[in-house]
Amino acid sequence: MTQLAIRTHRLGRQFGSIRAVDDLDLEVPAGSVFGFLGPNGSGKTTTIRLLLGLIEPTSGEAEVLGFDPSRAGDRVRERSGALLEHAGLYERLSADDNLEFVGRAWRMPAAARRARAQELLGPLGLWERRREIVGTWSRGMKQKLAVARALFQRPELVFLDEPTAGLDPIAAAALREDLAGLAAREGTTVFLTTHNLAEAQKLCALVGVIRSGRLLAVAPPEQLRATVRATRMVVTGRGLDDRIARLVAGQPAVSAVELGDGRLTIALRDGQDTSPLVGLLVAEGVAVEEVRKGSADLEEAFLALMGEDEAGPGGPLGTGRPVRAAPAAGGEPA
Amino acid sequence: MIRDLGTVCWKEIRELLHQAGTVRKTLRSLAFMLAVFGLFLPWQIGRALVETPAAIMPWIWVPFMLVSGVVADSFAGERERHTLETLLASRLPDEAILLGKVLTATLYGWTFAVVSAAVGLVTVNVFHGDGSIVLYPPELAIALLVFGFLGSALMACAGVLVSLRAATTRQAAQTLSLAIVGVLFVPIVVLELVPEAWRTALAALLRGFDTPAAGLLGAGLLAFVDAALLLAAAARFRRTRLLLD
Fold first, then answer.
1. How are beta strands A189-194 and A232-238 bridged, if at all?
2. Nearest by CB: B15 against A86, A89, A90
């Protein structure tokens, strides 16, 4: 049986009338990199705060590294590192002092503190500048330091809220490699929130998608992509207009259609063949230039999930004009 | 716990030393204050500063004001600079964080008062000496140390309590200033308003105390208020509430 670093059961947190986290059921295997995706205000940060025992849940329960964070938050924090919504650096102090504080807080011996600082700051290009006041640094440098601080005490579990935000592409790529290596080498569980879906795709073994506090899906990135790949078709050509979109939307094989940027994006019901639709388009006088199927990335899967959640099944796929599909054969509403 | 307390104090001292931007600038402003309270004031007041019981007043007042200048920042500043959440996400226990902040602010004010008093003693000897070395009488030296510490602690505990509830350092500083004005001026106003007979009775009561007894009573009262404020701050300090305040 896979050992779990995080397990939540119907975890919820209400702020007045707002349900920031709603019946969250989550299982994160130990030693994995877990990506938590969602738009701003979807409940990602609140979830991290709940898991660290920094706020109390209003319903449900959680177990982090074997401890209930609402009752034994200190045990969870002892074993965790965190880069939260803000870098949280002491900007009047030097980088050395910032890391020294973490090392002392986790009771690392002086020699180990120094060695670890060099080990982390060296590859990030900050070792030579460690005595500078952090407040004078660029945002990217601060972000690198904040990541180093979260990893400093070699935690069993690390929460990283948008770790590559503000980093240049080279530093971001290096950090991604470091995080992947960390999980593989040291067995550290990484709980990562990000808006960068390409990053999640590269890094994460498992991805959770959250919106308005509700978990919409949890799956490996490949599986999420495959869900979209199997049901998505993009047609480019001349003669694609609202009439054609309505006609396609009326086909039983189609669950949703979206017209925009000279393209027709068609969501197909599971297992449906695309060739009759291409035939239909040609018969209706559309000069088809390209038909693309199965190239969806995690971003498309994410947007599809967001769209489904917003409009229910058959809702918009992206940002274009959605066209409602006809009910499926057998009378089931799409 | 002691080790964690030391860690928080270490961080707070580092931040205090950088409060003016750099250590050098901070030390320069402290040196200026030392020149005022350790050189100018004793030079102006003379031997009375080390020989009369009233001499301890500056050494209560100085740390009181000095601590009020930094303690408003203790939690409100961390909240404002977005470091509070990271601090709370660390393994440091609640008591270490709270006591570390109170203790650092207290020691900051107290140390300054003691150093100023020592420098003041040297100044009095240099400018107002009569050939023999002038020293604080032992009971006055003890009172200076005790009241300096309790005065600092009073402001540190009150300041941390206010700072815990404040959204910004400025808000905390304003609340603290109002509290200081209240503590200093309300008794004066009340004394002005009460009938003459009450004032006479109070004066007679105070004259009835001998100086050591009055000192002990005052120290006990201050210690009690300090403890009450510290307990109030401890009751207020709840990790799961601080982020939501």
1. unpaired
2. A90
Instruction: Give the Cβ contact number of residue A177 at 10 Å.
Output: 13
Higher pLDDT pick, B133 / B105:
B105
Among chain B residues, the shortest Cα distance to A152 is held by B90
Q: Mutation target for A interface from B8, B87, B90: give the one with most A CBs within 10 A.
A: B90
Rounded to a whole number, what is the distance in Å from the CA of B215 to chain A's nearest CA? 40
Judged against a pLDDT cut of 80, whether residue A331 lies above it is answered with no
Q: Which residue in chain A has the smallest CA separation from B94? A: A74
Tokens of A274: 């695309």
- Fold of the CATH domain A229-324: Alpha-Beta Plaits (3.30.70)
Cα–Cα dist A246/A259, whole Å: 10
Could you tell me which of B183, B154, B171 has the C-alpha nearest to residue B72? B171
Helix (H, G, I), strand (E, B) or coil at B23: helix
Q: What is the pLDDT of residues A116-161, one digit of tens each?
A: 999 888 888 889 999 999 999 988 888 889 988 998 999 999 999 8
B172-175, Cβ contacts within 8 angstroms, sequence gap of 24 or more? B172/B72, B172/B73, B172/B75, B172/B76, B173/B68, B173/B72
pTM of the shown model: 0.77
Residue type at position B58: P
Q: Contact B14/A93, CB-based, under 8 Å?
A: yes
The CATH class of the A4-225 domain is alpha beta
Q: What is the ipTM of this complex?
A: 0.84
Sorted by sequence, the CB contacts under 8 Å of residue A44 that are 6+ apart come out as A36, A38, A161, A193, A210
The residue extents of the domains of chain A are: 4-225, 229-324
